[in-house]
Amino acid sequence: MVGRELGGRALSGLWRGAIAAHVAANLAAMALFFMALFLLPTSSPAQVHSLVAPQSVTAPAAGPATGSPGATIVAPTPPAPPAPPAAPPLAQAAPAVPAGQVLLAVAARYGQNAAPISAGLIWRVYAAKPDAPGNFRLIKEDRGAAPTFMLPPGNYVVHASLGLASAAKTIQLRADTVREVFDIPAGGIRLEGRVGDVRIPLGQITFEIFTGSQFNASERRPIAQNVQTGDVVLLPEGTYYIVSNYGDGNSVVRSDVHIDPGKLTDIVVTHRAAIITLKLVNNPSGEALANTQWTVSTPGGDVIKESIGAFPRLVLAEGDYHIIARNEGRTYQRDFKVITGVDREVEVLTR
What we know:
By secondary structure, this protein is mainly β. The protein has three domains: about 15-40 and about 100-185, Sandwich (Immunoglobulin-like), CATH 2.60.40.1120; about 50-70 and about 190-270, Sandwich (Immunoglobulin-like); about 275-350, Immunoglobulin-like (Sandwich), CATH 2.60.40.1120. About 5% of the residues lie in helices and about 45% in strands. The protein has two helices and 24 strands. The chain has helices at about 15-25, 25-40; strands at about 50, 65, 100-110, 120-125, 140, 150, 155-160, 165-175, 180-185, 185-195, 200, 205-210, 225, 230-235, 240-245, 250-260, 265-270, 275-280, 295, 305-310, 315, 320-325, 330-340, 345-350. The strands form six sheets. Strands 1, 2, 10, 11, 14 and 17 form a six-stranded mixed beta sheet that branches. A four-stranded antiparallel beta sheet has the order 5-4-7-8, covered by helices on one side. It is elongated. The two termini are about 45 Å apart.
């Protein structure tokens, strides 16, 4: 041009109702429910690179919706000779197991035959049956890449999340150590905005991320809001569209992007806009009059922005505009043009 954690020691009412219905059928169905809830359904041209092999950061190239390689999501490690993807590590050293306990060793990867996920995971183990109030109790939680849980024999639901992507399994523990690998086909996206070759400062631009394409007319809620420049959002593999808002006026850009598993995609969103400061003055370059009410509209009369003050500052998309300034019961007007990248003051004379 980021996933929210499952909270507390109990799931919400929505989770409880849906999961309870599946448990009544069988444990396998409940596992599918977990996966369906966390794996959201899944373009601007963009370059991507692997999350696994570290690379140096390269500044993204400017353009309407372009991308370039950036840094890896996981912490960089010294270069190593190329090797085929290895199975994720499970338990490194089997701890002593007390009587009445079973070991569960888990790990995750970006997909079948893909590289292991080495950072950013959240593991949660839930009881397979609800307690008396109907809550599915959180038993254990871990943020390691390949943790080992020590649990009593029984049935459990294990959930692994990586940002907004996740996977879940129903697992039965008996007497022997169980080793499970979870496939989480996820990738990352990192966003920034520019006007021409100038990067829009942090805090002046925000992004929203929606599932599917912008050309899909169905109404959807954003899955990530108020995303800032440089934030990395981890998402399930698929197509998304980005809505970029520069300022609080009418400079809005929409672009599609496809997320590939194990890849980080840098997106540069280019806005055609400028920062305009309004002044009501008695004489050219004179002192601005305080307590002025402003209305900025299109030539056709559609209101873009209203404000009060001596020096209102706003971001406007390139184009033609009409200003109305009201002060001490009098009204003054003028037309003006916004040119991309040309920040300036626009004066309205009281005569």
